[in-house]
């Protein structure tokens, strides 16, 4: 069994690889080739959480179980840390133990790329980023794969972290004009695409401020208690899509709240990534507000873990 660190994987496996591998796993999902168990989320005190996600691909003969720790209280270590155990189902051999922090961020960015490509206006040029933690970087990488972003606005509750994030983007070679803003509402007023990646239990921007034609990616909240988006933007959204319907009904705090309040019903969700990834462009006009909500599922992690294994087996 090989052991792969985040650094090992990051040197070889990029956002373009992840996008293709996620599309492949969505095809498997459509064809009933995925066996999975519901993600288990256990509280670990002080707003910390442990997540466990098992999944099997029948067509690829691969199994994974992913373990993730999410510790917002960490000072010396990353907020999110994880590992994936990969098993060959032809032999039962455990093939790899790989760090999952980078892969989690990367597969989520790939999923955002797929949703954004189908839903954002084709001439979208500005991206607003709310929350500049580790998850947000790969979200930016995903969006710039599918739209010609010229301007990036950054907001973080601790402004110094937004400046650090700006430098990281610049050091990576992102050539867009990047600006740190002082409040989230001014960001959403001028952004064609909005990436929101926080673990807030209260909305982080006013949905009434979102401009017509905007596309929103909500990827931060993953428990019923977390609500980084408000009821207003959910009500305003002309089209809502999600990554995985089962996970959304269990974990997407904003949508659960909106359904319970009678603002929307689950039937108002237009579809999932598996239903839209290989279809036509979905936006009806340039004035619609579109929203994509993601909480994650094991088969997305299997997609990138299997992609990494194929690369390292060469």
Model description:
The protein has helices spanning 6-12, 15-30, 101-119, 134-146, 159-172, 184-189, 231-236, 245-251, 253-260, 273-276, 298-312, and strands at residues 2-4, 34-36, 40-43, 49-57, 62-70, 80-88, 94-99, 126-130, 151-155, 177-180, 193-196, 215-218, 239-242, 271-272, 290-293. The protein is α/β, with parallel strands linked by helices and 314 residues long. It folds into 2 domains: 2-103 and 299-312, ornithine cyclodeaminase, domain 1 (2-Layer Sandwich); 121-296, NAD(P)-binding Rossmann-like Domain (Rossmann fold). Strands 10-9-8-11-12-15-13-14 form an 8-stranded parallel sheet. A hairpin with a 4-residue loop joins strand 4 (49-57) and strand 5 (62-70). It is globular and about 55 Å long.
DSSP strand (E) fraction?
A: 15-25%
> What's the end-to-end separation, in Å?
15 Å
Helix content bin: 25-40%
Strand order of the largest sheet: 10-9-8-11-12-15-13-14
Write down the domain tally: 2
The main sheet comes to: 8 strands, parallel
Quick one: CATH superfamily of the largest domain? Answer: NAD(P)-binding Rossmann-like Domain
SS-derived structural category: alpha/beta
Radius of gyration computed on alpha carbons: 18 Å
CATH class of the largest domain equals: Alpha Beta
Mean pLDDT: 94
Shape: globular
What do we call the CATH topology of the largest domain? Rossmann fold
Element-by-element helix/strand order? EHHEEEEEEHEHEHEHEEHEHHEHEH
Can you tell me the residue ranges where pLDDT is under 50 for at least 5 consecutive residues?
none
Under the CATH scheme, the architecture of the largest domain is 3-Layer(aba) Sandwich
